[in-house]
Design goal:
Largest sheet of chain A: 6 strands, parallel
Structural class of chain B: alpha/beta
Helix content of chain B: 25-40%
Radius of gyration of chain A: 25 Å
Structural class of chain A: alpha/beta
Largest sheet of chain B: 6 strands, parallel
Strand order of the largest sheet of chain A: 3-2-1-4-5-6
Distance between the termini of chain B: 25 Å
Number of strands of chain B: 13
Number of strands of chain A: 13
Shape of chain A: elongated
Largest interface: A-B, 160 and 176 residues
Radius of gyration of chain B: 26 Å
Oligomer: heterodimer
Distance between the termini of chain A: 25 Å
Number of helices of chain A: 16
Chain lengths: ~400, ~475
C-alpha cells in the first residue's frame, strides 16, 4: 500500500510560515516524527529570506533560520492559492496526525478543506488566539510582549521599557504548541478523535511574569522596571567587569561569608550587611565595595572561580562566547550544516538525552521542493500527473 | 459516546516530582491539570523553598507555607507527600512509588542524585520503562555540570541578556529589578513539559523509557539561534538595540498620557506605515520622500520616533491602541501586571481562574491563577484544585497506593521519615514584603488598595463554571 510517510513516528504537516509552527514541528521531529513542510513553490518559506546568510547575500538555500528550524523535515512545494494545490493538501492530510500553522486566526478554516480525518489534530498559533475581542489585532514580537506584561517590567525605569532580543515569544509559543499537540495526539490514539488547539502568544508571554502577577493578586503591588542606579548586587542585576559583565550571585541565597572571602572583602562582614533585610537597606554601600573588585577582573575569572566557591556567578555571554563555549562543545550541543560555503554552527536538540533511547541526530534542512515528487508518488500519483502539476505551477 | 471520550487526556499517567522552586514544578503542573496523577515529594528538611510567599494580603501566618502565591500557582492539582530520601527507608518507599509511576521529574544536582542512589540506573532497576526528566542549569554532563544558576544567571550565560537593552546601556534582564521574575525559569519549564510529553508519546510507540537531560542554558540558547549562527557564519556578534528591528520600521515604545504609560508600535510594511501616518494626520510622515522605504525610515528612525511620540504623548495609551488597531496598525498598550489581570482578551479565553481558599483559611478568600496557555477543543474540563499542603497526601498515597499499615505510618513519623510540617527554620525568607520601600525605590509603580475587589469583580464576571473540578477527594483511594 503506497503512503507518503516514512517511519513509524507521528505524521506531521508543517503549514507554518513563521517561527512558531516550524519550531513546534521541529521539536516533534527531534523525537522521531516524520514532518512534511509545505512551502510556496516560487519563493519558498518566508524564513528562507530571513537569514542570517553567508556574507549577508540572500540565498534561499543558505538561510540560517530556515536551516535551524527545518532540520530533518521534507519539503513539499505546493501552491495553496490554487484549488488544485489545496486539493493535494487535503489528500496528504487524509493520512496525517497533526498539522501546525501560524498564519493567523481563521486561516486554516479559510482553506475549506473537506474530508479531513476525524483523528486529525490541528494546532494553531497566533498572537492573541483564534477568537476574542483582540483576535484580529496586529501584533508581532513587541506587541505580544507589551500585552503579555513582560515589556513593562523590563529595562530602565527612567526611560522606555525594552523587549527581549530576537524572537522569544514565537519560539516559546512553538514549544507550547508542540506540548499541546502531543497531548491531543495521545488522546486521539485512544479515542479516535482529534481536536483543534489554539495557542495565544500573549498567554505564553503572560506566564513569564507570573511572579509579578502574584505580587499584585496577593499584595496589590504593581511591579515596574527599576530605575537605573538601583543597587546591582542585592537586586541581581549585571555588573561590570574588566571585559564585559557578570551576573552576580542571587543575593540572599548564597553564602555571604564565601562571597566576602572570594572577593577578598572582609568589609562585607560588617554588621550592616549580615542579613538579607539589612543588605537591602545598605545595597548602595555594598555595591560601592564590590563594584571596583569586579571591574578589575575578567568576567571569565569571576565566573569560574566564583563557582568554585559555590557562588552563583555567571558571565554575560555573547554569540562568540556561545559558539566557543567548552561546556556546550563537551555536551555535543551544537549541530553543524554547510550553508552556502560556510560550515555553520547552530543550536541542537533540547532536551538532550542520555541512555539508550536517543534518537539519531536530525539531518539537514531540505532544499525547496526537494521531496515534492516523493510525496506525490507516495500519494499514488503517476509521473505524468506530477509533471503536469509542475508545469501548472501547482507544485514546485 | 463512550466514557473514554470524557476522560481527561492524561488520566492514568503518574508522575513523581522531586523538585522545587520554579522550573520543574512549573513544567509539571499543566500535566496535573490535564489529569496526570502528580505526586510531589518534599521532606521536613527540604520543603519547597518557594512556599515562602508572597503571602495573601502581605500578612504573615504561622502556616504561611501552605498559602503562598507562587507555590499555589506552580503546584496546583498535585498530591503532596514527604519522604526523607537520605534515610534508606525513605529511599525504599520512593522506589516503590517509582515502580508504579511513569515519570520521575527531578532538579537535584547530579552529585546529590548519586549520593541518594536515585540515578537513572537505580530507577530502571525497579521500573525498566521509567522516564526520568533531569532538569538543571547546565545539564548532567560537561565541565560546568556542577555549576549553580538561578534564573537571572541562566539568562546571562545563555546569551539573551547580552542582546537585550539600550544600545548605550548595559545588558538587561527580563523583569529588571528582581521581584522574582525569572524569564528562563518559565522558558525552561515550557521545554520541560514538552520533554515529558515527547518521551511519553515515544514510549507508547517503542516501549522504551528515557533519560531526558534538560539544561536551562541550552533551552535558552535554542531560542536565540541568530546570535549563534551569525557569529559562526559571519563573525558578527549581535548586540542590543532597545526595541528596534531592521525588518519592522518604525518600531518602538512611545510615551502616552499619565505616569509611566506607553504604547508599543510596530510597522511591518510600507502600507502599514502610511495607515499610521494617515491615522496621525501627520504631513511630515505622509509627505517626506525618504520615508517611503523601510531603509529610508531606518536611517531616519530617531526623527520618526520624535514625530510619533509628539502625537502619542497627548493621548491615552489604550485609546491609541484602539484607534490604530481599527485601521490595522500594530499598536499595543504596554500592560502593567494589573492591566494583564484585567485584559479582556485573556478573560474571553478563560486564561484566569479563581481558586478557592483552603477550608481551614476561608478568610484568605478565592485567589486568581493562570491556566496553561493551551485552548483544546476536545478538552471538556481541566482539574482545578489547590496546591497540596505540606504532607497533605501522606496517608492517601502511602496507605492508599502502597498499602502501608497504620502502624508502619506511625513508625515512619516517629523516625522522621515522613512529616506534617516543615522543620523549623527551613523556610528562611522574610514572610512579608516591604511594599513602601519598594514603591520608594521605584520598583513598584504603586500599591493598589482595592486589588481584591478589582480582581474578584473581573473574575466572577467571566468565571466559567463549566471548567469545574474533578475533585481530588472523590478519587477512589484504591485506584492504582
Amino acid at each position: 500500500m503506497k503512503n507518503p510517510w516514512r517511519g513509524t513516528g507521528p505524521r506531521i504537516v508543517d503549514l507554518g510560515d513563521g517561527i512558531a509552527a516550524a519550531h513546534a514541528a521541529r521539536l516533534l521531529a527531534d523525537f522521531g516524527a516524520d514532518v512534511i513542510k509545505i512551502e510556496p513553490p516560487a519563493t519558498g518559506d518566508p524564513l528562507r529570506a530571513a537569514g542570517p546568510f553567508p556574507e549577508d547575500l540572500v540565498n534561499l538555500e543558505a538561510s540560517g533560520m530556515f536551516a535551524y528550524l527545518n532540520a530533518g523535515k521534507r519539503s513539499f512545494a505546493l501552491d495553496l492559492s490554487s484549488p488544485q494545490g489545496v486539493g493535494l493538501l487535503g489528500r496528504l492530510l487524509e493520512s496525517a496526525d497533526v498539522v501546525f500553522e501560524d498564519r493567523g486566526p481563521g486561516w486554516f478554516d479559510s482553506l475549506s478543506l473537506s474530508g479531513l480525518p476525524e483523528r486529525l489534530v490541528v494546532c494553531s498559533v497566533s498572537p492573541y488566539g483564534q477568537r476574542g475581542p483582540k483576535a484580529n489585532y496586529q501584533a508581532g514580537e513587541l506587541g505580544v510582549y507589551a500585552s503579555g506584561g513582560m515589556l513593562y517590567v523590563t529595562g530602565d525605569g527612567s526611560r522606555e521599557p525594552v523587549v527581549h532580543g530576537l524572537h522569544q515569544a514565537a519560539h516559546l509559543a512553538g514549544v507550547n504548541a508542540a506540548s499541546a499537540a502531543l497531548v491531543a495526539l495521545l488522546s486521539a490514539r485512544e479515542t479516535g478523535e482529534g481536536q483543534r488547539i489554539d495557542i495565544s502568544e500573549q498567554e505564553v508571554v503572560a506566564m513569564t511574569i507570573f511572579p509579578a502577577l502574584n505580587i499584585y493578586s496577593h499584595t496589590g503591588g504593581v511591579m515596574r522596571r527599576a530605575p537605573s542606579g538601583i543597587a546591582n548586587l542585592v537586586n541581581s542585576s549585571p555588573m561590570e567587569t574588566a571585559d564585559g559583565y557578570i551576573m552576580p550571585s542571587y543575593a540572599g541565597l548564597d553564602d555571604w561569608q564565601a562571597l566576602s572571602s572570594f572577593l577578598d572583602l572582609p568589609e562585607l562582614m560588617d554588621e550592616r550587611f549580615l542579613t538579607p533585610e539589612s543588605r537591602l537597606l545598605h545595597a548602595a554601600e555594598i555595591d560601592e565595595l564590590v563594584a571596583p573588585v569586579l571591574k578589575s577582573r575578567s568576567k571569565r575569572d569571576i565566573f569560574h572561580e566564583g563557582q568554585e566557591w559555590r557562588l552563583t556567578f555567571t558571565a554575560v555571554q555573547d554569540g562568540k562566547d556561545l559558539v566557543e563555549c567548552p561546556h556546550l562543545a563537551a555536551r555535543g550541543f551544537f549541530r553543524e550544516e554547510l550553508l552556502g560555503d560556510r560550515l555553520t554552527t547552530m543550536p541542537g536538540r533540547v532536551p538532550s538525552e542520555r541512555g539508550e533511547a536517543i534518537q539519531s541526530p536530525l539531518g539537514r534542512a531540505p532544499r525547496l521542493g526537494e521531496h515534492s515528487e516523493e510525496v506525490l508518488l507516495g500519494l499514488g500519483y503517476g509521473r505524468d500527473e506530477i509533471a503536469e502539476f509542475r508545469s501548472q505551477g501547482v507544485i514546485g | 459516546m463512550s466514557d473514554a471520550t470524557r476522560r481527561l487526556p492524561l488520566e492514568g499517567v503518574r508522575i513523581l516530582e522531586l523538585g522545587m522552586v520554579f522550573v520543574l514544578p512549573l513544567a509539571v503542573t499543566p500535566l496535573a491539570a490535564l489529569g496526570a496523577d502528580v505526586i510531589k515529594v518534599e521532606a521536613a528538611s527540604r520543603p519547597d523553598s518557594v512556599r515562602w510567599g508572597p503571602p495573601p494580603d502581605n500578612r504573615a501566618r504561622a502556616d504561611g507555607y501552605n498559602h503562598g502565591a507562587h507555590f499555589q500557582m506552580l503546584n496546583r492539582n498535585k498530591r503532596g507527600i514527604t519522604l526523607d530520601l537520605v534515610n534508606p527507608k525513605g529511599r525504599d518507599l520512593l522506589l516503590r512509588l517509582v515502580e508504579v509511576s511513569d515519570v520521575v521529574a527531578e532538579n537535584f544536582t547530579p552529585r546529590v542524585l548519586q549520593n541518594l542512589r536515585l540515578t537513572y540506573d537505580d530507577l530502571r532497576s525497579v521500573n525498566p520503562r521509567i522516564i526520568l526528566l533531569s532538569s538543571s542549569g547546565f545539564g548532567q554532563s560537561g565541565p560546568w555540570r556542577n555549576y549553580r544558576a538561578y534564573g537571572p544567571n541562566t539568562e546571562a550565560v545563555d546569551g539573551l541578556m547580552h542582546i537585550t537593552g539600550y544600545p548605550d546601556g548595559p545588558p538587561v534582564r527580563g523583569g529588571a529589578g528582581g521581584m522574582g521574575v525569572a524569564f528562563t525559569d518559565v522558558s525552561g519549564a515550557y521545554y520541560g513539559t514538552f520533554a515529558i510529553l515527547a518521551a511519553l508519546e515515544r514510549r507508547q510507540r517503542t516501549g522504551e523509557g528515557a533519560w531526558l537531560d534538560l539544561s536551562h542554558y541550552e533551552a535558552g540558547v535554542a531560542t536565540i539561534p541568530e546570535a549563534v549562527i551569525d557569529y559562526s557564519m559571519n563573525g558578527r556578534i549581535r548586540g542590543r538595540n532597545a526595541n528596534r528591528d531592521p525588518l519592522r520600521v518604525p518600531q518602538g515604545c512611545y510615551r502616552c498620557l499619565g505616569r509611566d504609560q506607553w504604547v508599543a508600535i510596530s510597522i511591518a510594511s510600507d502600507d502599514e506605515f502610511y495607515r499610521l501616518a494617515e491615522a496621525m494626520a501627520s504631513p511630515e510622515l505622509l509627505n517626506t520622500e525618504a520615508f517611503r522605504t523601510r531603509e529610508g525610515r531606518w536611517e531616519a528612525h530617531d526623527e520618526i520616533d520624535r514625530i510619533i511620540e509628539r502625537w502619542t504623548s497627548a493621548r491615552d495609551a489604550l485609546e491609541v491602541e484602539k484607534t490604530l488597531q481599527a485601521v490595522r496598525v500594530g499598536a499595543t498598550r504596554v500592560a502593567t501586571p494589573r492591566d494583564v489581570w484585567l485584559d479582556e482578551q485573556l478573560h474571553s479565553r478563560s486564561f484566569f481562574e479563581l481558586v478557592p481558599p483552603a477550608e481551614n483559611a476561608p478568610e484568605i478568600g478565592p485567589r486568581p491563577h493562570l491556566r496553561p496557555a493551551w485552548k483544546m477543543s476536545g478538552l471538556e474540563a481541566q482539574v482545578s484544585n489547590r496546591a497540596p499542603e505540606f504532607g497533605q497526601h501522606n496517608e492517601e498515597v502511602l496507605v492508599g497506593l502502597l498499602g502501608l499499615s497504620r502502624d508502619e505510618m506511625a513508625e515512619l513519623r516517629e523516625d522522621g521519615i515522613i512529616a506534617d510540617t516543615p522543620a523549623p527554620g527551613r523556610l528562611s525568607r522574610a514572610a512579608t514584603m516591604n511594599l513602601q520601600a519598594l514603591v520608594e525605590s521605584g520598583r513598584l509603580l504603586d500599591v493598589d488598595p482595592s486589588y481584591r475587589e478589582t480582581l474578584e469583580g473581573q473574575l466572577t464576571a467571566s468565571h466559567n463554571t463549566a471548567h469545574h473540578a474533578a475533585s481530588r477527594n472523590k478519587r477512589d483511594p484504591n485506584e492504582n
